[in-house]
Design goal:
Elements lengths: L1 H76 L4 H8 L7 E4 H4 L1 E2 L4 H8 L6 E3 L2 H14 L6 E2 L20 E4 L4 E2 L5 H8 L2 E4 L6 H6 L5 E4 L4 E2 L4 E2 L8 H32 L7 E5 L18 E4 L4 E7 L11 E6 L2 E13 L4 E3 L2 E10 L12 E5 L6 H20 L2
Parallel strand pairs: 3-4, 7-8
Antiparallel strand pairs: 1-3, 2-6, 5-7, 8-9, 9-10, 11-12, 13-17, 14-15, 14-18, 15-17, 16-17
Helix pairs in contact: 1-8
Length: 415
């Protein structure tokens, strides 16, 4: 019977041990599942961020390619010769280059085609402030063999915008072209000389009645860019290749590229913030990120507390009745509960100026450093510390606490 009892007891112990192992296996499996879920979540976030980054890069490349095409159209398709491009590159080296006519003339909305057609090749002429500047440009083009360029000097005294224009009241007549173009005050004589002899009529209207009343040398242009004289018709540029519209598109594309770059920088920053790196090596003493999985966090929230593995700081809790005996620079010893066989030397470094309640007593936090920290030391260890506060009689050491308390009690009740 006794043997049977022992066997039954052993069997129960084995069952209990098997139950513990099963619980441990279940707990380990749960932790493994949680870790797998966290890794899957991080992978999804990284993949999503990578797709957004690729999309932004593709947008930048497409915009830059379109910007390059439009730039080439402005300087090549628009009729600007190699010499004009070279002159514009001289702008920082030769003073007095003000840009091309097309750069300085600003047509009203809807008049871009009409102005471009009426200007013709003059739209690519370079405006100079003086004849000396024009001569320097021509000499530079000859020396470098960079081709030819048309140059205009507005203040040379040869421009005469005072031209008598006929009174037109024909159907479809809109106005005179110089009335729909703005420019700098000093360039208005040039603009009026070039455009004041061109009448504008609505696209689709018959210009015959207008042309009959125009003097020799005058022109008529439709709002869609058809240029008429008495004997000729010249077609304007297509909608997609307008000189003035191309410049607006180029500016718009530059803004889009800057916006895409800003989005890429923001995405890179967000991608970098997914990974948290501690500024030093240490161990986590507080915090469990698995409990925050899927929940929102705000700037300033504490996720972990990390303690460094080197440079330990000792916190001594000194009762307020003993704080008067503690001073900076004093030495002492520390015995930890987990290392009770070793006495660790310490030095007091800092004493807090305000006491706080701790386990029903008012204590001061005294910071100390270990002179020789062992490798087995870990954050959070507790023990007992002693500070060398000087020599005193044994009877005083044993009785001064009760004596101090008794004096305070008598004083509080003394009338």
């Amino acid at each position: 019977s006794e043997k049977k009892t022992n066997l039954t007891f052993d069997l129960e112990k084995l069952r209990a041990k098997a139950g513990k192992l099963s619980q441990g296996r279940i707990s380990t499996q749960a932790e493994l599942n949680k870790t797998t879920q966290e890794q899957a979540t991080k992978k999804i976030v990284l993949e999503r961020t990578g797709k957004e980054l690729s999309k932004s890069y593709a947008s930048i490349e497409a915009s830059q390619a379109q910007q390059k095409i439009l730039s080439e159209l402005i300087y090549s398709f628009g009729g600007t010769h190699a010499g004009v491009i070279t002159v514009l590159e001289f702008k920082d080296k030769i003073e007095g280059i003000q840009g091309t006519v097309a750069d300085r003339f600003k047509p009203a909305a809807g008049m871009e085609k009409a102005v471009e057609s009426a200007l013709g090749d003059i739209s690519h002429y370079v405006i100079c402030d003086s004849k000396d500047t024009a001569e320097k440009i021509i000499e530079r083009l000859k020396i470098e063999n960079k081709g030819r360029a048309g140059l205009i000097v507005p203040n040379a005294g040869s421009l005469n915008p005072q031209i008598k224009r006929p009174q037109l009241s024909s159907a479809g007549f809109v106005g005179w072209l110089d009335e729909f173009v703005s420019t700098a005050e000093n360039l208005k004589p040039l603009m009026q000389t070039v455009l004041s002899q061109t009448a504008v009529f609505e696209a689709g209207s018959d210009p015959k009645a207008i042309l009959e009343h125009l003097p020799y040398g005058f022109k008529a242009v439709s709002t869609d860019g058809l240029l008429y004289t008495r004997n000729t018709i010249v077609g304007g540029s297509s909608e997609a290749l307008q000189l003035f519209s191309r410049k607006d598109q180029l500016t718009e594309l530059s803004e889009q590229i800057n916006q895409f770059k800003a989005e890429v920088d923001l995405t890179r920053q967000q991608l970098a913030n997914i990974r948290l790196i501690a500024p030093f090596d240490g161990v986590i003493i507080e915090g469990d990120l698995s409990q925050l999985l899927g929940s929102p966090v705000e700037r300033g929230d504490t996720l972990f507390k990390i303690a460094p593995l080197a440079g330990y700081r000792i916190i001594l809790k000194v009762d307020e009745s003993d704080i008067s005996y503690i001073d900076q620079g004093q030495t002492g010893t520390l015995v930890l509960s987990s290392l009770s066989e070793r006495s660790l030397p310490l030095t007091v470094e800092k004493i807090t100026t305000v006491a706080k309640a701790d386990d029903g007593a008012n204590i001061f936090r005294v910071e100390a450093k270990l002179n020789n920290a062992p490798d087995l030391l870990r954050p959070g260890m507790e023990g007992v510390g002693k500070v060398n506060a000087g020599r005193a009689r044994m009877i005083w050491i044993w009785t001064h606490e009760i004596t101090d308390w008794l004096q305070l009690w008598i004083w509080s009740w003394w009338p």
